[in-house]
Design brief:
UreD, UreF and UreG form a complex that acts as a GTP-hydrolysis-dependent molecular chaperone, activating the urease apoprotein by helping to assemble the nickel containing metallocenter of UreC. The UreE protein probably delivers the nickel. This is Urease accessory protein UreD. It is found in: Cytoplasm. The strands form two sheets. Strands 3, 4, 6, 7, 9, 10, 12, 15, 16, 17 and 18 form an eleven-stranded mixed sheet that branches. This protein has a domain at about 20-195. About 5% of the residues lie in helices and about 50% in strands. The protein has two helices and 18 strands. A hairpin with a 4-residue loop joins strand 17 (about 240-245) and strand 18 (about 250-260). The chain starts with about 20 loop residues before the first strand and ends with a helix.
Length: about 280
């Protein structure tokens, strides 16, 4: 009897080619007849492994777990999450994301696209993004909100791992509510960016972040300006970092902070969250 040669194994869909990895994870939250948020779509891809966590009340929670090192230079990654009308979706991450250099010298792209329907709430609370030396990452976060939608969005960026220089990091955040732009900002740090480490920008700090709150309640009662950390006089040398919570020109509030490291940055943003909840 003649045996046929073994059939070559099909290549894995998430294998990284010379041009980089292409991967998109998709999440859809929808309420059922009892008002409980369900997840009819939970589709991880490439470096994004999606884990459903125990639900609380009518909320659904998903944790993004890194399945491989990413983003690397040349990668094109995306996460798309939709909270349909009336649903409540909380998205977290198991660990920090580390941008690393790739083999091609091309920049990596990481796009986050969030859509929130009427009466729905979406909390996007990932762990920090670390820009490692030699990396080049272009990141965009785009949010589409219905008129009565609510959003809590945290963004933390750490410029370089311990004892190393930062990579190149360019980030843009765009939020539209009822089709109109509510917030559109772009930041850039690292090699090739003039003045990014000057006293007018980071002043020697290596962690920068923001916490965004949007909801109809801010339209009737705007948030009050609140200084955070050293800006509020906690330490005169600024060693604990500093920041500010301020109202947007619309139904929302934005906390922005800088700090020496990720731990102290998180403390400032947590302080802002407590202040916003008390408004």
């Amino acid at each position: 009897m003649t045996l046929a040669p073994p059939t070559p194994a099909a290549p894995r869909a998430d294998a990284r080619s010379a041009a980089g990895l292409r991967a998109t994870a998709r999440i859809l939250a929808r309420t059922d007849a009892h008002g409980t948020t369900r997840l009819p779509v939970l589709d991880g891809d490439g470096p994004f492994a999606l884990r459903r966590l125990r639900a609380h009340s009518n909320q659904a929670e998903v944790c993004v777990v890194g399945a491989m090192s990413a983003p690397l230079g040349g990668d094109l990654l995306a996460i798309e999450a939709t909270a349909e009308a009336g649903s409540v979706l909380r998205l977290t991450a198991a660990a920090a994301t580390v941008a690393l250099p790739g083999r091609t010298g091309e920049p990596a792209r990481y796009d986050v696209r969030l859509t929130v329907g009427d009466g729905a709430r979406l909390d996007w609370l990932p762990e920090p993004l670390i820009s490692a030396a030699g990396s080049d990452l272009r990141m965009t976060t785009t949010v589409e909100l219905a008129p009565t939608a609510r959003l809590v969005l945290r963004e933390e960026q750490v410029l370089g791992r311990s004892g190393e220089e930062t990579g190149a990091l360019r980030s843009r955040l765009t939020v539209r509510r009822a089709g109109r732009t509510l917030l559109d900002q772009e930041t850039a740090y690292g090699p090739g960016v003039p003045g990014w480490d000057s006293p007018a920008v980071l002043g020697g700090h290596r962690a920068v972040g923001q916490l965004l709150f949007i909801g109809p309640e801010f339209g009737t009662k705007p948030a009050e300006v609140r200084l955070l950390g050293a800006a509020a006089g906690e330490r005169s040398d600024g060693g604990a970092g500093q920041g500010v919570l301020a109202p947007l020109a619309g139904p929302g509030a934005l906390a922005t902070a800088v700090a020496p490291d990720a731990l102290r940055l998180r403390r400032l943003l947590d302080e802002a969250a407590v202040a916003a909840a008390a408004e």
